[in-house]
């Protein structure tokens, strides 16, 4: 898959923009703050329905405007698809596929992209929520219907937490909360499906991560993934040490359901005291290990950077292997400035075979020459020259 044309209206700092793209590498060059990242962010948003820089949509709409529009023409195996998303300050966002109305959550079925940016260092070094978001975005790209499951789980979780808070305020005894049992059943059904799907994804991703880490770092290290499960007693949001009894590579829905039911029963008193649901996929973590040790807290800055990049390259490789849409659009946002010369060359070699690679850089010479053949210059929210060939 590749994007052949991109149009923006009132997106970030762009009043309007129209840019033609080609298969293979495309390099966007401009000083910091000019809008390079905004261009590639718009494509990644179509694929993930989220920004890698902000949690909400409001910052994506140009100041003073009520809506922003992202429109992209995609091509794969001789077939074209036109996708459009309108982000609204008020009311729900709207989408179209080939000019026909669609739900925004349907867009990831048509757009596959993997973006790596300096912010991804937080996947390795930051809080568990970032690693959960990484897994779930990839899960939705591979299995779009999981978007609905994740959304339903969040709604049930909010309702259950509201009930727990109300019960705490009213000092209701656990034995009197029959309504909670109804929410528990739905929480377990949805949560077990998510836990099983994440576990299967981790298992499929593991070999690609090991291969990508070796390719990027150029060193013999063992990079591994596993799941820390709160239904087995893990508390990654509260405790930094890893309890191996709570770590699993995969878990099926039946086992997850049994463990989830037991965890809710075990935590009932504490949940009523705190007004929070203390076990479930919203409290899990993706455990990243390097040479047998947790990367968070043990890996150096360079090792953490290589691990974060390996996660994204592995995601792209998995999408390439499993998606009927072929290669995802691979986006490298301001990456090469952070790498030494050897890592730049290794990364360039690792991405050369993808159908389309979009790269942003403030300094053109930071990017290896084979990736700079199709050059687009950006200044102050304007595309200065579109498709200059070197």
UniProtKB/TrEMBL annotation:
- Residues given in the record as ATP binding sites: 30-37
Q: Which GO terms describe its biological process?
A: DNA replication; DNA synthesis involved in DNA repair; double-strand break repair; SOS response
- Could you list the residue ranges that cross the membrane? none
Which Gene3D superfamilies has this protein been placed in?
A: P-loop containing nucleotide triphosphate hydrolases, RecF/RecN/SMC, N-terminal domain
One GO cellular component assignment for this chain's record is: cytoplasm
Q: Locate the RecF/RecN/SMC N-terminal domain: which residues?
A: 3-363
* Family membership noted in the UniProt record: Belongs to the RecF family.
Cross-referenced NCBIfam families: recf (TIGR00611)
Name under which the protein is recorded? DNA replication and repair protein RecF
Upper classification of the source organism reads: Bacteria, Bacillati, Actinomycetota, Actinomycetes, Micrococcales
């Amino acid at each position: 898959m590749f994007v052949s044309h991109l149009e923006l209206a009132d997106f970030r700092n762009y009043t309007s923009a129209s840019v033609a793209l080609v298969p293979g590498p495309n390099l966007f060059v401009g000083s910091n703050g000019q809008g390079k990242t905004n261009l590639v962010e718009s494509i990644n948003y179509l694929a993930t329905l989220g920004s890698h820089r902000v949690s909400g949509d409001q910052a994506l709409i140009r100041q003073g405007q009520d809506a922003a529009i992202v429109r992209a023409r995609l091509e794969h195996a001789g077939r074209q698809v036109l996708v459009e998303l309108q982000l609204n300050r008020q009311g729900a966002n709207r989408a179209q596929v080939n000019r026909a109305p669609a739900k925004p959550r349907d867009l990831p079925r048509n757009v596959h992209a993997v973006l790596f940016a300096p912010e991804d260092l937080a996947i390795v070094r930051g809080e568990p929520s970032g690693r959960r978001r990484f897994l779930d975005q990839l899960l939705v790209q591979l299995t779009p219907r999981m978007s609905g499951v994740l959304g339903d789980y969040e709604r049930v979780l909010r309702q259950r937490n509201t009930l727990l808070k109300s019960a705490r305020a009213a000092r209701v005894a656990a034995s009197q909360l029959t309504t909670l049992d109804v929410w528990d059943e739905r929480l377990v059904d949805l949560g077990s499906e998510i836990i099983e799907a994440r576990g299967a994804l981790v298992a499929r991703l593991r070999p690609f991560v090991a291969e990508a880490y070796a390719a990027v770092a150029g060193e013999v290290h063992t990079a591994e993934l596993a799941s820390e499960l709160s239904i087995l007693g893990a508390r990654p949001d509260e405790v930094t040490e890893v309890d191996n009894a709570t770590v699993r590579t995969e878990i099926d829905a039946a086992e997850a359901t049994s463990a989830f039911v037991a965890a809710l029963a075990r935590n009932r008193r504490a949940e009523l005291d705190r007004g929070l649901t203390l076990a479930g996929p919203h409290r899990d973590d993706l455990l990243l290990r390097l040479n047998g040790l947790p990367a968070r807290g043990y890996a150096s800055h360079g090792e953490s950077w290589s691990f974060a990049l390996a996660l994204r390259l592995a995601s792209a490789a998995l999408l390439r292997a499993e998606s009927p849409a072929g290669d995802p659009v691979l986006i490298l946002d301001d990456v090469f400035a952070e790498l030494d010369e050897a890592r730049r060359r290794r990364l360039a070699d690792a991405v050369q075979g993808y159908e389309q690679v979009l790269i942003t850089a403030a300094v053109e010479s930071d990017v290896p020459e084979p990736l700079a053949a199709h050059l687009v210059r950006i200044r102050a929210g304007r595309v200065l020259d579109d498709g200059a060939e070197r």
